[in-house]
């Protein structure tokens, strides 16, 4: 589905990715974990065309998509939900959803899709005329996820969906992602909440210093003592994040 | 009472034109996070473009207005964005602000050089004949200026809220990073903003120059007043700029009539100081957080 081959890249002269290689299969959830500064979010930016790639290759369904623009990636069925708050604050919930389909050539279909997505997220229908800024943090995240689904993506890149969400909302987002996986969508996720994220993932990927350290089935990574030491119980803030802090 | 109404209406008419220019400030601020200190000159120049059309190209007045609008949108919108904003903005907002100051001086001096330092008569769009409204003698020109300005602001607001392109422009202004990842053509939206700013400035120029006459130095006061109007109303809100413009227009007229005409030039500045002390985000504005 998606394959990275020895990708190097960064911001200006600063290199953050020092040869990232991995491949994720179709209809699977892969969680990327690693210490702060390992380049987790940067990998997403590289895939989505927001980062200068110095060398290496990114393939989507066998086609070279290295250095494509975000618009081109969207056209290829990839959407990206970055960390933090990513709504357009003064636009209504409905119009935020509409923006998720802004690149679609047939805007009539987008309207129908918005209705479907609001069926999946009834909260959004209830608040569709409210300004996005008036939603709670958890509701805004749901809006972002819903917006990312508007064009029926094949691959979703989702960065730290649990930040700022209460534990039951995190479960809600995870359930949504699992449902999407079952519908054939591939999910690539960065998550501090490593234990919980790996538990619902098919694969896990450990990044360190801009390189792939480990890449295996999620259950194997969960059982791997190196992972346990490094990321699950050790000095990384994963333990805090697992509590939803 | 009739005098008050007269003063109020003509103040609103002038204020509405200030508002057009002030809205330009807010649009450019939202799209490029910069202040265009050549904005006053952007209002001064279109009148000269019209005069060039009439006197040098022999076009009729109304065709010259269209010509002036087109040249303004092209030069003060497109060329300004491509030649000044795009290359300089990556070096920082402050750098660009200083560059626009330089541009203002360049435009002002060029107008003087090419067209002379004398004030040039500029045809009125509407007759100045007074009409009687509730006993107040109000000039048709004032009423038309008010109606046109408010109408254009309303159309602009409708465009921004009711069309997909307008909403994409809002998304670009409010959260450019998000607009980009959703596939909004951010560069194009920013360009639209600059084109709209130029068109608003041109319209303000056509409405106000019949009163002020076309003079190279017209931009000095106009730019300053509109800048203050935008701050007073709230720099990040279109309706704030509208309120600020109208307020300054009305207060200016009221002061001149009922207090003294001597200090009318000081009034916007006093208002500015008061607003900055009491409500720095402006009357309608919202405070903006900045991560440094």
Separation of the first and last Cα atoms of chain A: 33 Å
Q: Most extensive interface, residues per chain?
A: A-B, 22 and 16 residues
Assembly category: heterodimer
Low-confidence blocks of residues of chain A: 235-245
Count of helical segments of chain B? 11
Percent in helix of chain A: 25-40%
In DSSP terms (H or I, runs of 4 or more residues), the helix count of chain A works out at: 11
General description of the model:
- The complex is a heterodimer of chains A (245) and B (292).
- Helix content of chain A is 38%, strand content 26%.
- Chain A is α/β, with parallel strands linked by helices.
- In chain A, the strands form 2 sheets. In chain A, strands 6-7-8-3-9-10 form a 6-stranded mixed sheet, sandwiched between helices. Chain A has a 4-stranded antiparallel sheet with strand order 2-1-4-5, covered by helices on one side.
- In chain A, α3 (93-99) packs parallel to α6.
- The radius of gyration of chain A is 17 Å and the shape is globular.
- By secondary structure, chain B is mostly helical.
- Chain B has one domain (2-218).
- Chain B is 74% helix and 3% strand.
- Chain B contains 11 helices and 2 strands.
- The A-B interface holds A 48, 50, 70-71, 74-75, 80, 82, 86-91, 95, 98-100, 102-103, 107, 147 and B 164, 167-168, 170-171, 174-175, 177-185.
Topology overview:
The complex is a heterodimer of chains A (245) and B (292).
Chain A: E1 2-11, E2 14-24, E3 29-33, H1 40-47, E4 52-60, E5 63-64, H2 70-75, E6 78-81, H3 93-99, H4 107-120, H5 122-126, H6 137-148, E7 155-159, H7 167-182, E8 186-190, H8 194-199, E9 203-208, E10 211-217, H9 218-223, H10 225-232, H11 238-242
Parallel strand pairs in A: 3-8, 3-9, 6-7, 7-8
Antiparallel strand pairs in A: 1-2, 1-4, 4-5, 9-10
Helix pairs in contact in A: 3-6
Chain B: H1 2-32, H2 39-56, H3 61-88, H4 93-115, E1 130-133, E2 136-139, H5 140-162, H6 164-174, H7 176-181, H8 186-212, H9 218-233, H10 238-259, H11 267-278
Antiparallel strand pairs in B: 1-2
Helix pairs in contact in B: 1-5, 1-6, 1-8, 1-9, 1-10, 2-3, 2-4, 2-8, 2-9, 3-8, 5-6, 6-8, 9-10, 9-11
């Amino acid at each position: 589905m998606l394959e990275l081959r020895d990708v190097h890249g960064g911001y200006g002269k600063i290199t953050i990715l020092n040869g990232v290689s991995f491949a994720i299969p179709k209809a699977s959830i892969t969680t990327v974990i690693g210490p702060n500064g390992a380049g987790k979010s940067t990998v997403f930016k590289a895939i989505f065309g927001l980062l200068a790639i110095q060398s290496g290759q990114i393939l989507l369904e066998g086609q070279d998509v290295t250095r494509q623009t975000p618009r081109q990636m969207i056209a290829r069925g990839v959407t990206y939900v970055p960390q933090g708050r990513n709504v357009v604050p003064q636009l209504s919930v409905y119009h935020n959803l509409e923006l998720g389909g802004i690149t679609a050539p047939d805007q009539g279909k987008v309207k129908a899709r918005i209705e479907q997505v609001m069926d999946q997220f009834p909260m959004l229908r209830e608040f569709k005329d409210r300004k996005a800024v008036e939603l709670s943090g958890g509701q805004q995240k749901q809006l972002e996820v819903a917006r990312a689904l508007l064009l029926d993506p094949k691959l979703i890149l989702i960065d730290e969906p649990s930040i700022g969400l209460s534990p039951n909302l995190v479960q809600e987002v995870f359930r949504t992602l699992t449902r999407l996986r079952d519908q054939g969508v591939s999910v690539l996720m960065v998550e501090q909440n490593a234990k919980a994220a790996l538990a619902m993932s098919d694969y896990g990927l450990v990044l360190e210093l801009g390189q792939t350290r480990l890449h295996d089935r999620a259950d194997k990574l969960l059982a791997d003592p190196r992972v346990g030491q490094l990321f699950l119980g050790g000095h990384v803030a994963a333990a805090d994040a697992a509590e939803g802090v | 009472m009739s005098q008050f109404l007269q003063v109020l209406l003509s103040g609103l008419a002038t204020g509405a034109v200030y508002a057009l220019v002030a809205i330009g400030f807010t649009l450019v601020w939202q799209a490029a996070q910069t202040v265009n200190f050549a904005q006053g000159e952007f209002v001064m120049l279109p009148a000269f473009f019209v005069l060039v059309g009439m006197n040098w190209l022999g076009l009729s007045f109304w065709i010259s207005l269209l010509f002036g609008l087109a040249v303004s949108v092209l030069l003060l919108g497109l060329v300004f964005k491509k030649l000044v904003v795009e290359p300089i903005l990556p070096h920082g907002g402050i750098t660009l602000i200083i560059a626009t100051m330089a541009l203002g001086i360049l435009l002002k001096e060029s107008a003087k050089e090419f067209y002379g330092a004398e004030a040039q008569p500029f045809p009125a769009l509407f007759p100045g004949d007074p009409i009687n409204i509730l006993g107040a003698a109000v000039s048709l020109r004032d009423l038309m200026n008010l109606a046109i300005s408010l109408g254009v602001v309303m159309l602009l607001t409708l465009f921004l809220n009711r069309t997909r392109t307008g909403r994409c422009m809002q998304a670009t202004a409010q959260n450019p990073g998000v607009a980009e990842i959703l596939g909004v053509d951010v560069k194009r939206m920013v360009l639209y903003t600059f084109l709209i700013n130029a068109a608003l400035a041109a319209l303000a120029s056509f409405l106000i120059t019949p009163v002020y006459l076309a003079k190279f130095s017209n931009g000095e006061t106009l730019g300053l007043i509109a800048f203050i109007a935008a701050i007073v109303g709230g720099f990040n809100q279109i309706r704030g700029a509208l309120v600020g413009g109208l307020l300054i227009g009305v207060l200016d007229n009221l002061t001149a009539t009922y207090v003294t005409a001597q200090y009318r030039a000081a009034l916007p500045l006093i208002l500015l100081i008061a607003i900055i002390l009491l409500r720095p985000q402006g009357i309608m504005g919202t405070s903006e957080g900045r991560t440094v």
